[in-house]
Amino acid sequence: MRYLIIFAAAWLTVMVPCAAAPVRATHICTPIAGDRVVLIADANDPDVFMWDARANLINYATGHLRGAPWVLAHTILVNAGTPAFVVSCFSEMVRERYGYGIGSEIHDAIGVKLTGGPFQGRFGWVTSSDTLNLHAQR
């Protein structure tokens, strides 16, 4: 009986806080594989860094830089308005350290293949804040 009481107390200690925790809705990537997008950052600086690896994109956004030579070695600067095709999307992977809002902003990591411009055919990674969805015809 004593072990049953200890087990019940331990179980309640773990389960009650879990049950009381707020449930967060699952975020689904806005652009999905197959969507056509246009790359554009913002009005003040419309060109987009396209990264060679998702991990490098995440490191840059979170402020873990290794200097300008590292950034230049792992990116290409894509002109604003360059069309692309979404290959994959990872929901809420990019947490910006230096955002415009209070705290960090959260974005999706999007793998794209460029379909126009001087880098046509290249694959890379951008954030969801750098894309404008053109709603692909399915």
In short:
25% of the residues lie in helices and 31% in strands. By secondary structure, the protein is an alpha+beta fold.
Key attributes of the depicted protein:
about 140 residues, alpha+beta, five-stranded antiparallel β-sheet, two-stranded antiparallel sheet, 7 strands, about 25% helix
Question: Mind explaining what this structure looks like?
Answer:
The chain is α+β, with helices and mostly antiparallel strands. The chain is 25% helix and 31% strand. The chain contains three helices and seven strands. Strands 6-5-4-1-7 form a five-stranded antiparallel sheet. Strands 2-3 form a two-stranded antiparallel ribbon. Strand 5 (106-114) and strand 6 form a beta hairpin. It starts with a helix and ends in a 5-residue tail after the last strand. Residues 18-23 have low confidence and may be disordered.
What is the residue-averaged pLDDT?
A: 81
- Report the count of strand segments: 7
Distance between the termini: 63 Å
Give me the secondary-structure category: alpha+beta
**Unreliable sequence segments:** 18-23
Helix coverage percent of residues? 10-25%
Outline type: globular
Largest sheet: 5 strands, antiparallel
Radius of gyration: 21 Å
Percentage of β-strand residues: 25-35%
Which helices and strands appear, and what pairs or packs with what?
Layout: H1 2-20, E1 36-39, E2 48-51, H2 54-61, H3 68-74, E3 75-78, E4 82-95, E5 106-114, E6 123-127, E7 131-133
Antiparallel strand pairs: 1-4, 1-7, 2-3, 4-5, 5-6
